[in-house]
Every structure is written in structure tokens, then in C-alpha cells.
Write a structure and sequence with these properties.
single chain; alpha/beta; Rossmann fold; 2 domains; 6-stranded mixed beta sheet; 35% helix
Length: 506
């Protein structure tokens, strides 16, 4: 197949940061190329240039051999470049169909043709094998469903080049498999596909070629992926071989649980669910997307109603009405999976995001909070967590995904929480930052913090949890001490999920 898209000597700077420096990339029709690099390497910046979100300052983008420069995302779309950004770009109060055809509304006699709009959306959903109702309001969908609608939205246009920025970050294995089937179909049709992912196992499954960025420069340029091993790709991304991590076995002292749920029934679907979390323990909740793990903990935090049952904190009955109660009355923090919409104030500075949980403590006369006090708090945790920033006054929205997640965690550490719920901690985070985050979670538990970890990444769960509870269809279907042996644990966990499925069918 011929070359469709070419990037030649592309450079882009932001105040104080050289995001891209003379980057090269060549993408052919009928090819899936991986675009890899650590958080902050420049991947998302490159995609935003290719789609007209940013303008380049030097170098060229060529489409079919002709130089192009898109002044808007709409211009890129009209030229046949479709994109699924890492950040969702859906309008929550619109229907699925309205979102999918938003940039190309079908019209009839000068009016929007609702029937044609629905038909176009249905075709895009069918191409992904999805059963989402085109008339459903987007805000009613799960995070995974929203991500799939984003993909359907890109496929609804006549795309010749499809850019996928972390497309599987929020979807289950079965949903990812459907996506890969669609990618294979598009590849066979001659579509050029650029695939950004931190999940190297899926990169080696799906991609033909690879470009690796490091510190804004291309260190591997559109080369056959088969020429590289997993470890060679990681070394190219981080600049050195990563040391093999030693398995860390931890001993948790039995005692009165830090957090206990007794026969909890929730309005969202859990029935008589119980668990006990010890101080100093990392308790993992594993399940496929939609199993009900996040919904259970959000119910505990007052975000969904509890119908019956009891919540205990340090042996005492707790009445948690909202996150304010959780933090100030019970010292519970919550690192949400949806960090951009729920975990951070993207338009606020880093120091304000970190200090927000301790504003009560920092207040002076008349409620005034001095900037110096916020900075004093934030500096401590920026250093402790190794958050890479130019200044504590930098906007949180300008950080890489890994650093945003660290800021999201830092605000709860600043509040001296004793129980922390961490939901999908490393989605969209590179391999080195992920390893550091795992160590950090275990260090917090070593210091006595009770950690409730929700993750759909089973290798991650096996790496850091002390005990794993498995959920399916809003019920616990298994509980296992963690042997840290992935083959053993994955067999036990998947057997529990399938046995739970069999019980549901019986």
C-alpha cells in the first residue's frame, strides 16, 4: 500500500516545554502503526497537530504527498482523518446518535433528518457489534460505553486515516476484542491506522509497524514491529532497560477492620454484599467492566443510595452522605477512574488541586487562604510523588496522564486520609510511571493506610494486592489471598468469574 500520511521534521513548543522536536513518521494504507512513548513524550501533541487542535511551528504534515495544515478538527475530519482522543469529547446531554453524527448532521429540505441520523449512528454502532441504543442520553452510559461511542463517532465519517489514542483504556477485554476486529476490517479496506497505547501486549497483537517518541523526539521511526522485542521497545521508550521488579510479599496484621461492609444492598443493584478491609492492607476488587465494583464503592461514599445493610469505619457505624463526610468525618479518600472530569480541576493550578482537601486547615481570618500555604503543602507532595512539573502554578490540565493521576492522589495524601479507594489507578499511564505507582501504593499500605484497589488490569492486581475479591454482576463470586503467581491467580480469578456466570444462568 502507498504512503497516505507523512510527518517530516515536525516541531512544537509550549511555554517552557519543547513538546516535539523534528519528529518523523510515515503511515501507509492497510497498516496499523503503534505510536509509543512515556507520558509526556509528545504522542498526544502529535495527534492534536494531525487533527487541527494545535498548529505546528516547524516541519510538515503531508497527506497523499501534499503539504496540509488543518486550522480546526473539522477541517481534518473533512480531509478523511478520524480520531478517538484519550479525553472523551462527547456532549453528555445529547443522545448517542446526536453525538456520533455531530460534525456531519444529515439534512432534508434544510432541516435535520432525525431518521437518517439514527440510521447512520446505528450503522457505526453495528460495525463495532455494540447494542447501545442510539436514542440513549450519553450521560446515562458507563465510562466503557462512552469510550465505544467515541470510536463509533470516528467510524461514522469517511476516514482514510484513523488515529486511536488509548482506545482500550476504559473498556473490557471482550469489548477490546471487538475493537480489534473492527481495526482488522478497516486495515483490510486500506485504512491507515495510528494506534496509541500503553498496553504493549495489545500493541504486539494489533500493530505492524512502530514509532517511539522519547522526550519529544522520534527514537524509532515507522519501523517493522517484528524487529523488536518487548524489552527493546520499553528500553527505547525510557532510555534504558527497566530493572525486573522483585515480587513484594506483605504481611497484614489481623484486627478490627478499617472499613467493613455488612450485607450491603444498593439502589444500583448490589444485594447483601460484605467485605472487610484491614489497616495496612491492599485489598483488590477485580472484575470485568460493568461488574459493579466502582458502583459499590461510590455507594459507600454516598454517591449512590444504600437500601439496606451497614458501613463500619474502625468498628463504628458510619453514615456517609457525601464526599465531604467521607473525608472530614471518616478520613476516606477517593481517587476516581475519571480523573479529568471528577478527580481534578483542570483549569486550576497544581498547588490548588493538591491543597483543595486541606483548605479548612489553611484558612485564616475571614476565610482567606494564602497562596504560600497552598504552595507549602503542594511542594511536599510534588517531591514525594515525583510529579514532573515546570511549576506548582502550572495548570493541571497541561500535565501528562501519569502526572495528573499523581496530583489526584496527592490531594488525598495531603488530607492525611487513613482509608483510600483507588479506582483504575494506571489507566493511560506509561510503563515506568505504572511501576512507580505500584510501589507507591504498597508503600502507603506499609505506612498503615488501608487501600481498596479497583482495577481491570489483572497483572496490576496480581502485582500489588494482598488479597483479591472477584465481582461479577454486582455480587462477589470469589476471594483469594494473592500468591503473586500470575498464572495461578489468573486461573482462580477467571474460574470464579465463569462459575459466577454459571450460577447466574442456573
Amino acid at each position: 500500500m502507498s504512503e497516505i500520511l507523512k510527518v517530516a521534521q515536525l516541531s512544537k513548543s509550549f511555554p517552557g516545554v519543547k513538546a516535539l522536536s523534528k519528529v518523523n513518521l510515515s503511515l501507509r494504507g492497510g497498516e496499523v502503526q503503534a505510536l509509543l512513548g512515556e507520558n509526556g513524550a509528545g504522542k498526544s501533541t502529535l495527534i492534536k497537530i494531525l487533527t487541527g487542535v494545535y498548529q505546528t511551528e516547524d516541519g510538515q504534515v503531508l497527506l497523499d504527498g501534499e503539504p496540509v495544515s488543518f486550522d480546526s478538527p473539522l477541517a481534518a475530519t473533512k480531509s478523511g482523518i478520524g480520531v478517538v482522543h484519550q479525553e472523551r469529547n462527547l456532549i453528555p446531554y445529547f443522545t448517542v446518535a446526536e453525538n456520533i453524527v455531530l460534525q456531519n448532521q444529515p439534512q432534508r429540505r434544510g432541516l435535520i433528518d432525525a431518521a437518517q441520523r439514527r440510521e447512520t449512528a446505528q450503522k457505526a454502532l453495528d460495525s463495532l457489534g455494540l447494542t447501545i441504543d442510539p436514542d440513549e442520553i450519553v450521560q446515562n452510559l458507563s465510562v466503557a460505553q462512552m469510550q465505544l461511542v467515541e470510536i463509533a463517532k470516528a467510524l461514522a465519517t469517511e476516514t482514510r486515516v484513523l488515529l486511536l489514542d488509548e482506545p482500550t483504556a476504559s473498556i473490557s477485554g471482550s469489548e477490546a476484542k471487538k475493537l480489534f476486529e473492527v481495526v482488522a476490517t478497516l486495515k483490510a479496506q486500506g485504512t491507515a491506522i495510528l494506534f496509541v497505547s500503553h498496553k504493549l501486549e495489545e500493541v504486539f497483537e494489533v500493530c505492524d509497524t512502530v514509532t517511539v517518541l522519547r522526550d519529544g523526539e522520534s527514537v524509532i521511526e515507522s519501523s517493522p514491529l517484528s524487529d523488536y522485542s518487548h524489552s527493546q521497545i520499553v528500553a527505547a521508550m525510557v532510555g534504558r532497560q527497566l530493572a525486573e521488579r522483585t515480587k513484594r510479599f506483605r504481611t497484614v496484621e489481623p484486627g478490627e477492620p478499617a472499613l467493613e461492609l455488612k450485607e450491603l444492598t444498593t439502589q444500583v443493584g448490589h444485594t447483601d454484599v460484605s467485605l472487610a478491609l484491614q489497616a495496612g492492607e491492599v485489598l483488590g476488587l477485580y472484575g470485568l467492566v460493568g461488574a459493579g465494583r466502582s458502583e459499590l464503592l461510590r455507594s459507600v461514599l454516598g454517591l449512590h443510595p444504600i437500601v439496606s445493610g451497614e458501613v463500619f469505619v474502625k468498628g463504628k457505624a458510619a453514615n456517609i452522605r457525601d464526599m465531604r463526610d467521607a473525608l472530614h468525618k471518616y478520613r476516606i479518600g477517593y481517587v476516581t477512574e475519571n480523573r479529568k472530569e471528577e478527580g481534578l480541576f483542570l483549569d486550576f493550578s497544581i498547588n490548588r488541586n493538591i491543597a483543595v482537601t486541606v483548605w479548612r486547615r489553611l484558612q485564616q481570618i475571614l476565610g482567606i487562604i494564602r497562596h504560600e500555604k497552598e504552595t507549602e503543602v503542594s511542594d511536599r507532595f510534588v517531591e514525594r510523588l515525583g510529579i514532573r512539573i515546570s511549576s506548582v502554578m502550572q495548570l493541571a490540565g497541561n500535565l501528562s496522564g501519569g502526572n495528573q493521576q499523581k496530583v489526584s492522589l496527592a490531594k488525598w495524601l495531603a488530607a492525611e486520609t487513613e482509608i483510600i479507594i483507588i479506582d483504575e489507578p494506571t489507566v493511560g499511564i506509561d510503563v515506568r510511571t505504572k511501576a512507580n505507582f505500584h510501589e507507591l501504593i504498597m508503600d502507603l499500605a506499609d505506612e498503615g493506610m488501608a487501600v481498596l484497589l479497583i482495577s481491570s488490569d489483572l497483572p496490576e492486581m496480581v502485582a500489588i494486592a494482598d488479597r483479591v475479591m472477584v465481582m461479577r454482576d454486582y455480587q462477589f463470586v470469589g476471594e483469594f489471598p494473592n500468591s503473586k503467581d500470575y498464572a495461578e491467580m489468573s486461573t482462580k480469578v477467571m474460574d470464579a468469574i465463569h462459575a459466577g456466570s454459571a450460577r447466574q444462568s442456573a
